[in-house]
Structures are given as C-alpha cells and as structure tokens.
Amino acid sequence: IKGTETLTVNVFVLLGYHKYPGLLFSAFLAIYLTILLGNSLIVLVTTMDPALHTPMYFFLRSLSVLEMCYTSVTLPKMMASLATGDRSISLTACASQMFIMLFLGGAECFLLAAMAYDRYLAICLPLSYMTIMNQRMRVGLVVGSFIISFPMQLVQIGLISSLPFCGSNEMDHFFCDIPPILNLACANLYANELAIYFEDTTFVLVPFVLILSSYVYITRAILHILFYGSALFTYVLPKTPDFMKIDKLLSLFYTIIIPLCNPLIYTLRNKEVKAALKRLFNNKRALDVSMVETIS
What we know:
mainly alpha, Rhopdopsin 7-helix transmembrane proteins, 5 strands, 4% strand
C-alpha cells in the first residue's frame, strides 16, 4: 500500500526475521517445543505431587501456564510465516494478537510481583505465612492480575483500532506490537502515548518496585529485571529507525527467551522439584512393571 493519503488498512505485512527461513523455523520450533515441554512438566509435577501443593508452587504453576499461552500467541504465527512465506496478517488478527499479548504481558507483570510478595512473606513472616497466604489469597492474587490487565488493554486496543493509517502497511516486526503499528499511523498519537505511559507505570514500574523491595535472591530478581527492562525499553524510549531494529530484537528476547529460561531458573536447582520428578518417574516405572506382571 503506497501513497501519502489516509487509507483503510485491512492487511499488514510482518517483515520479521525472513532471512534463512529454514534454519530459523527449525530453531524456533525447537525453542517452542522446549518451552511447552518444560512448562508442561512443571504444571504436571506440581499438580500431581502433594508435597508441592504449596503457595509457591501454585504461583509457579500459574506462571508456567501463562508462559505457554504467552509464547503461543507469537511463535506459531511466526513459524507459519517462515514455512509458507506468507507474512501477511489481517487487521482483525493483528488487533487480536496485540490484545492477547498485552493482556497476558500485563497479567505476568503482576503475577511476578505476587510471587515476590509470596517469597517476602515466607522469608520475613514465616510464622504467619500460611495464615496470610491461604488459598483465597493466592487465588485472588492470580485472578486479580488478569482482572487488572483486561480493561486497560481494551482501552489501548480501542485507541489503536480507531487510528487511520497511511503510507506503507509493512511492519518491521515479527508480531503485532504497539510501537511498530503506531509508526504506520498518520494521526495525533497523544492519547496513545498517554495510555502507553500510564500502562508502563501500572504494569512495569509498580510491580518492578514491589519485586525490587521484596526479592532477596538476586538470581531470580535478575530475570524479572530483564523482563521489565526490555518492556520499558520497548514502550517508553523515543521511536527512531535504529531503535525499531533494537526493539524487534528485545521483543524476541522477552517473548521467547525469558519463557524458555523460566522453567530452568525456577526448577533447575530446586531439590523439591527434582525429588517430585523422581517420584513421578518411579511411580510410572512401578506401574509399568505391575502391568507387565499382571499380563504375564
């Protein structure tokens, strides 16, 4: 779509990462399957093992489910584009993808803050921990994270959907995100920028401060800082052509790399999860042996 006049755009073209499609498809497929496998394993183990029915693992299970959904919004579409060469996406699909990404991303920000609060209670108030962090409290924190995110993202998508577009419909990104789509708009973006700064304050700065003040274990805090830092960098800093290239790379980082690392960060050195995995596999092995003996 070329020209300077205002146009009704029905289709966008996601330029993404289109060089070496075969190699990239294989790499992203391996990453996607690893994310699904790692997080599914966490959900399975923390659900089936009674020893892991604690508030900490309830939040970890919720985070794993969210990470699988979050990654599934972008990676399958990107892999389909690499496999078929079709990089187009309709306006409706683009708006839907953007809403789900923002909704899940906002919920994850507050969920990470809730996990930090859980660790704060466990470490600083151990005697009152189970009384405060009861089932009602932890379910409320998880559900509340989604409730807070939903209406604010509706406002953001409503503002973007009302924008007129002119010039090219090519989006230098691998999924529909706010900065690249605003670059294609030919209207006053004051309301959109105001909404972005308000959301950054709500979903990035507030949870970040809570995490920073609550977390004792630096290695876990680093992952959260990277998540919020990349999101803050993406949505707050001025949008220049060079910035958009960095933005695309950062988006790849916090939509793919962090979900890939989370299962390792939370469980690799966790003795309880390792013990639960051993029990799970030992029980399966014993069941298989029992079935063989029964058949014979």
